[in-house]
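Journal club prep — side note

Before the paper discussion, L.F. wants everyone to see what a predicted structure for a comparable chain looks like in token form. Sequence:
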Amino acid sequence: MKRLLKLFLSSFDYAIKREFEFKFNLLFFLVFNIVWILTSLAGISLVFEQAGTIAGWTRSQAMLLVLVYYITGSFIKSLVIPGANQLAELVRTGGFDFYLLRPVDAQLLVSLTKMYPNQLARVLIIAFALPWYLGKMGLAVSFGSWILFLILIILAVAAFYSLYFMIASLSFWLQNIFNLNDLFAEILDVGKRTTDIFTGVAGGAILFVVPVGLIATIPTKVLMGTAGWEILPWVLLSNLILFIISRKFFHFAVRFYSSASS
């Protein structure tokens, strides 16, 4: 565990230094993200001018959900999607050989050595905007709720790590899989809308099977005080099951890998 943490910190440090080599790009990305967030909030505002409420959510609650979405989504785009995309590319080009020869678990090595920290710029922006917006809504969030909120964000990132690497593992059979990044983005984008619009079996699946509800809906409800610690055991259980399935599927898929030297 200590070695993996050291590897992650080294990779993250390298990624940060790489980004700061292009300071203008980083500044442009920050400005672009501010504009993009404001555009998303304006779009939500326009929709609710016509609809009033959607699945019981008001305009201010939906805008809060979008802010939370950008926090979770930024972590996933920074820490999860790059590694999953890299796995598919390495399998296609034969570069996965190098990772199999290292004295570290191949899946973890692939996921820890590719990340885009510029995506975390959104998190910095929302970190300032979120407390202000909660105050504007008249919501006083307790310390315990903030802790639960952060735990759910971490679990959401972990759940999508399992899901995305399971999808990327299909490249061991379908070596010409392209546009995975678009697929990942489309799945993630569903979380920008409240999952309360889904009911019955679909509602359960969107929370525990394809855990889109974890991206924003459940953490937002925690901030609003309509969900609490009672949800955590179920989220932990679904995360554990999804992680075990993902790991087993990855190791099963590796058996079908044709190396560049074979």
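L.F.'s comment for the group: The chain has one domain: 2-254. Keep this in mind when we get to the figures.
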